[in-house]
Amino acid sequence: MSDKKMILHIEDNFENRMLVRRLLAAEGYQVIEAEEAFQALDILKTKIPDLILMDINMPDMDGYTLTNTIKSMPGLSEIPIIAITANVMKGDREKTLKAGCDGYIEKPIDVDRFPDQVAHFLQQSKTL
């Protein structure tokens, strides 16, 4: 069994998915991608990631609703969900955390800091 951490990245924008995949693969993570919420829910029927990176603004279901849905599913409530969002106005971080996300990363992501941010959230999840 591999000790490589599995990360589910839910993002409708191809360029954003490609950037995150490149950054995380370079750090040795296994990245699974979903372009939309219902695809993510299908993936979660058969795979349990160590961390979920969640876009908030998606066309089929927003990230707040999807986070709530995932957190209510048996066996998935403990998976940390980190919002990656361009919603950076006053109150957006709080709204994201109130919706059930365990953390918050602003878009555009800082490519130098992003791998450390992900590692931090993975490390935090071990202490929960």
Automatic annotation (TrEMBL):
Q: Give me any GO biological process, just one.
A: phosphorelay signal transduction system
Q: Which UniProt keywords apply?
A: Phosphoprotein, Two-component regulatory system
Q: Which SMART domains match?
A: REC
User: Start and end of every Response regulatory domain?
Assistant: 6-122
* Superkingdom to which the source organism belongs: Bacteria
4-aspartylphosphate is carried by which residues? 55
This protein's name? FOG: CheY-like receiver
Tell me the organism: Longilinea arvoryzae
Taxonomic lineage of this organism?
Bacteria, Bacillati, Chloroflexota, Anaerolineae, Anaerolineales
